Structure formats: C-alpha cells, structure tokens
Amino acid sequence: MRSWKKYPKYKDSGVEWLGEIPGEWDFCFLKYCLMANDGGVWGEEPHDDKGNIVLRSTEMKLNGDWKIEDPAVRILSNVEFNKSKIFEGDLILTKSSGSKLHLGKTAIATKEIELMNCCYSNFMQRLKVNSNLIPKYLFWFLNGESGREQLLNRGNTTTGLANLNSETIGQIIIAFPRLFEQTAIASFLDRETTRIDALIEKKQRQIELLQEKRAALISQMALRGGFNVSNSLASQEPVLLRLSKISIIIDCLHHTPEYIDNGVPIIRISDINNGDLDVSEAKTVDLATYQVFSKKYQPQKNDILISRVGSIGSISLVKENQIFCLGQNCAVIRPLINPLYLFHVLLSDFIKEQIQLVLVGSTLKTLSLEDIKGLRIPIWNQEILDDIIDAFLIKNKRIENLIIKISESIKYLQEYRSTLISAAVTGKIDVRNEATA
Fold this sequence. Notes:
Blueprint: E1 10-12, E2 20-22, E3 26-29, E4 34-39, E5 52-55, E6 72-74, H1 78-84, E7 91-94, E8 96-97, E9 106-108, H2 111-115, E10 119-120, E11 124-129, H3 135-143, H4 145-154, E12 156-158, E13 161-163, H5 166-170, E14 173-176, H6 179-223, E15 239-242, H7 243-246, E16 247-251, E17 264-267, E18 275-276, E19 283-285, H8 287-294, E20 304-307, E21 315-317, E22 325-326, E23 330-335, H9 339-346, H10 349-359, H11 369-373, E24 376-379, H12 382-425
Helix pairs in contact: 3-12, 6-12
C-alpha cells in the first residue's frame, strides 16, 4: 500500500492516545459538537402489517453501510414517531450489544433513509452534529480505530450486554480541522474505502468459490464419486446407516442461563460455524451454572456439535480437550467411527438434503433429536474408507491452504482500512490534496 504525506506542522494535544495533531486542528469532547444525542423507541407489537419501520442494529453492517432487508414494524405514538424519525445526515449508533464487534458501529442516514419515514430502536442512539462538524466526518471518525476503541472502553457491561449512553458517548474525544478540510477528508475516505472494499469483496468471492469446490469434494467423499479407489473396490456401494448406529447423540439442557464476564464458556448455536470449535467469543457462565449444565454433557476431543435451530444442521468439531458447557438448541454427536470422516460427511450436500426434507412442511423449523438420530450416513468397509480419507485429505489441504492465504490478505486489507481511516481523522496523514486524485 502507498504511503501518505504528513502535515507540515504539528502540536501536542495533551491527550496520550491522540498524541500530536496538525497545528491548525482542534479537539474537544464530542458533546460540544452535537446538538442532539438521544435514544430510540420500540413501541408496541403491530396486529397487522401496518405500523412504522424501526431500524435496528441488524440493519447495519460492521463497516457502517446499511443493509435493510426485513426491518421491524412497530406501532408508535405520534410523540414517539416525531421524537425518533430519522433525517438525512443523522448518525445512528449501536449503543447496546452482546458483541464487541457491533457495539459502537455507526451508520449515516441518506436521503433514501429519510424518505422511508423510519425511526430507530431503543438499542440505538441518534447523533446530530452542530456547526463544528460535517456528518460524514464524524461518521468516519466513529468508524475508525480512534472512535471505536473509545466507545468500547466506555461500554458498561450488564447481563452480557455492553451499553453506551448519551453521557459516555458525549465523553468521546474527537480531533477535527476546519469544515472544508473535513469535507476533503471525508471525500478521500469515501474513495479509498470503496477501493479497499471492492478488493475485499473480490477475495471473499474467491473464498466462496473454494468453499463450493470443497463442498463438492465432501459430497464426492460421502458417495465415493470421483475418488481414485483401487479397481477391485470400485464397484462396491456404501451401506446407509442411521447416525444413532455409529455415534452417541447427547441432548442439551433446554433453558437459557444468565451470562457473566470471565466465566466458563457456554456454546450457543451462534458459536457453531461449520468448522473447528472456537470458544474465544463464546458467552460465559459462573461455576455453579457450569456444574449444572455439565452434568448432562462433558466435552471430549472429536465430539461434533450440531445446531438444531437457526442455521439448522451447522456443525463444529471439538479438536482438542477443552472446558465448556452446552447451551440451548444444540446437540452433540460423539462418533463411534472415524470422526474426521463423519464430520465431513455431515457437511456434505447429501446430509443437507436429508435435513431439508425433514423440515419441509414443519411449522417449527427445528431439528429434533430423533431427526438427528435418523440421518443416513454412507458407511464403507475399512479398506475403502482409508482410501477415501487419504485422497480427501490431500485435496482438502490444497483448498485449505488457499483459503488461509486469501483470508490473511483480507485481514490485512481490513486492518489497513481501519488504520487509514484513523490516520486521516486524527491528522496523522495529510490528504487535503488527495480527495480528487
């Protein structure tokens, strides 16, 4: 990536994390740059499709773009509607979230958003700038490292949710230049982030194509089509056995516990992602709750966790011995055959099609324990199975290496994007003449 020039003169801000800022810049608490900093509404449940659109955090991407596909419709009073109607230039910020990734993410209202006559929910905060700032400059500041880190540090955690309020948001320190320079910086970041996002999207599509190739490979493994097995075995067919015949199925406790900070991980369906189990972002519970939940299930290496609702049929492999308990709407498959083979067969289209057939006509989209037990798994004799697994591992390793390489380049681009935003809105680089370059 190219390097950018610096301002000719700097001064010490006196703020440790901010350091030096350009000589003609100013800085202050964000509250002195706002004329509105207020929470949203939720209203009442509608009895039909009539009501007011209320935008939630789910309508915002992590990068601050809108993604409005199925917004909530609520019944609002006239006072609630007038108080929380969104106008062009408003900044809508997520002030409550169970995820550090989402707390503080900020979107800016466009003219299209204003014309929707929509409001924002009570988990959101609306900011209106005064004459010191332009809205797009504050948008970029809050979405850069400087803004997001301050918001995360000011989030108060209660019952698993991190929360911000008008006071903590107002205490954010912001550095800013004159208005014409804010416009130049915002235009520069619009252009550069669009370029970076296009590169990231292209690489993400490459990963999707590789994952599709791996999915086809997994299906080949399940049914042995396209694998080079010895000629004397090529005419043989697998035996289809119920999953309950080749594994032990363990159910979860059917209630949701209270979460705490820095406790024992509890796995929920959102932690099950068709890969190796990662507990680093899992919610946690206290020791007493863990002991209750672990009476029914204690994890072992090579267990396979499966989601029964939401992303139904998603699975994760427990690759090492670790301590956690099982949350609601999950189940455990403990293999009695080669766990690597069973894990990848459960990822195949052959199994996905069985799950879809089970769900057809079901009013409650839930995979029952009996549904899981009844999944049909192709089983081969040991000689063919060894041949299949050896061939699969070689092919899969090549795909995995490519995915890892592309994923690393995406991570680098995302980090560069965040660093570039922060550098521009804190004056560490001078982009005044770059806006139209």
